[in-house]
Amino acid sequence: MEYAEWKEEIKEVPIEDCCEMLGIEYRRQGSLLSILCPNPAHNDQHYGSCFIKNGRYTCYACGDHGDNIKLVQNVKMMSYQEATHMIARYANIPSWDDISYQQDEKEPLPLTDKQLKLLGLSSRVTIQHINGLEDVRPENGSWIRDLEGYATYIPETVNLVDLYREDKDLFNEMVIGKLFYRLIDLLTYYLTETFSSVKEQEATEMEIEGLIPLAYRYQKVCKKYGYDLGFVKEYKKKTITRIQTRSLSKFKFAV
């Protein structure tokens, strides 16, 4: 089972069951169930503003809305991961920690410490989870325009090894993005700048050479994530000119 599949199983737990788990009282108003808005900033004290429909809650007073996971996050002041694991325990769904331990107990991170350092990655990284859609562009936070509104994101700091074991697709996308832009920066500097010393030039060359094996490893799948690492072959052939290097950003294309 992949992490995305496990997370979908968590999201399928009825939000009404999560209300029971949290001790949230709800009242029926017409065909809908009304609860007090779970947003801590709202301090809702009257039913009739926040309703449950299609597995999500929406507060028409403050605009807060979300799925069962966000409901638990708001009420318990938990992180995204903590909320998913609480729902899993309540619904008797095996925790992802147990599943990933069984599946990937001995699966190592496919990057050496040296490669992590060259990519600018540490043992913990911050990823973004889609939080929901807003009708009006948010003033703060991360968001992206969607056909149905503005998709907002919430940050979550995770262990890099856990990210690799839980969501390899997201892990690969992050690594390839880091790799692409780091190589662009290094090659641009290497081929357009004047080095102050031979030592500085050699250090830059060592960085490039340290990343090239990764470029070859991910070259077959990089286009899936919107990147093209084909220019690395040109570097190895020593055929990239100064003029070509200034246009390396053209190797990035839209998905």
Automatic annotation (TrEMBL):
SUPFAM superfamilies: Zinc beta-ribbon (SSF57783). Residues 18-93 form the Zinc finger CHC2-type domain. Pfam families: Zn_ribbon_DnaG. It comes from the Bacteria. The keyword Iron-sulfur does not apply. Coiled coil: none annotated. GO terms for biological process: DNA replication. GO terms for molecular function: DNA binding; DNA-directed RNA polymerase activity; zinc ion binding. Keywords: Plasmid. The keyword Glycosyltransferase does not apply. Signal peptide: none annotated. This is Zinc finger CHC2-type domain-containing protein.
